[in-house]
């Protein structure tokens, strides 16, 4: 592939940052209903976005926006416009190379997705990182390759609905009272769990066992992994109510061996290289088929 023309701005488009195939990502949610969308006095919706001589109307962008949620509509519009530009660039290249006859859809694969898949198979190199590449990345990023931190936890859940202001106040007060008694008599924890906890773990004295990050609700998880070993001096709040918590042991993650993470590193590096190749390819297509109007749309979203 030839280098892009000087002065052509790269489209800031991530095509592969998802769990879906690239071809599906490029065509996702595309609808071919040209007769839909807003109209004014019987006239077609205005067009400010073009790929070569193909106009992408505001109606097209508005339909696409529902699949690109954002904090403000200008950003949603920019994401939608960008997705439509990528799709049109790829469609034009499929047509130029005459790849339609080579397409063999897989299962229920739509024709457009099949065309894009074949195009990318032809034009974008799929490079697998070497063992040396993987080992170099492993040695340069040791902090990324550790077994998970773990904590061994017991708790007493004093349940209260999130919208029950009085109930939550009472639960917190009860938690503070139990903590005060447990600080004087720690051996009473299992007994208090049996008597007061609203969690099924009360039958095991409140035992939750060894926990890793992400195994409980996020708000409980964040707080528990900040605690020191021993009885927490305050009730821990979650969506379920308040928890009297005892951290009985803390096990920091251990460094992993290269062989344990080799496959994970290889997959990650292959994804990164694929991303770079796709971005470069989109830049070449943008140089081949002039894109007009996207800068202005993205400037409004900045």
UniProtKB/TrEMBL annotation:
Catalytic activity: [protein]-peptidylproline (omega=180) = [protein]-peptidylproline (omega=0)
Recorded superkingdom: Bacteria
UniProt protein name: peptidylprolyl isomerase
Region (Disordered), start-end ranges: 17-41
InterPro entries per record: PPIase_dom_sf (IPR046357), PPIase_PpiC (IPR000297), PrsA_foldase (IPR050245), Trigger_fact/SurA_dom_sf (IPR027304)
Enzyme Commission (EC) number: 5.2.1.8
Family: Belongs to the PpiC/parvulin rotamase family.
Biased composition, class Basic and acidic residues, residue ranges: 22-38
Pfam families, per database record: Rotamase (PF00639)
Organism of provenance: Aerolutibacter ruishenii
Gene Ontology MF: a single term: peptidyl-prolyl cis-trans isomerase activity
PpiC domain sequence ranges: 148-249
């Amino acid at each position: 592939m030839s280098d892009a023309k000087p002065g052509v701005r790269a489209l800031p488009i991530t095509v592969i940052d998802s769990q879906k195939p690239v071809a599906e990502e490029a065509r996702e949610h595309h609808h071919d209903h040209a007769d839909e969308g807003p109209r004014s006095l019987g006239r077609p919706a205005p067009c400010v976005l073009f790929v070569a001589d193909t106009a992408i109307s505001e109606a097209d962008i508005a339909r696409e926006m529902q699949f690109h949620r954002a904090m403000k509509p200008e950003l949603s519009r920019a994401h939608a416009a960008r997705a439509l530009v990528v799709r049109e660039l790829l469609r034009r290249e499929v047509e130029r190379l005459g790849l339609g006859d080579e397409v063999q859809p897989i299962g229920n694969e739509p024709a457009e997705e099949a065309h894009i898949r074949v195009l990318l198979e032809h034009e974008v190199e799929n490079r697998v990182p070497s063992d040396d590449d993987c080992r170099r990345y492993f040695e340069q990023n040791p902090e990324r390759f550790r077994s998970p931190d773990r904590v061994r936890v017991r708790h007493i859940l004093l349940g209260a609905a999130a919208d029950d202001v009085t109930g939550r106040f009472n639960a917190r007060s009860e938690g503070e009272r139990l903590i005060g008694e447990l600080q004087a008599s720690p051996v009473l924890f299992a007994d208090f769990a049996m008597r007061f906890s609203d969690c099924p773990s009360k039958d095991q004295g409140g035992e939750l066992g060894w926990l890793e990050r992400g195994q409980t609700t996020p708000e409980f998880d964040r707080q528990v992994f900040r605690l020191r070993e021993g009885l927490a001096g305050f009730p821990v709040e979650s969506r379920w109510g308040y928890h009297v918590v005892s951290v009985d042991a803390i096990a920091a993650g251990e460094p992993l061996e290269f062989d344990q993470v080799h496959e994970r590193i290889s997959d990650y590096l292959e994804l990164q290289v694929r991303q770079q190749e796709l971005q470069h390819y989109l830049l070449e297509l943008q140089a081949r088929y002039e894109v007009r109007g996207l800068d202005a749309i993205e400037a409004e979203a900045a």
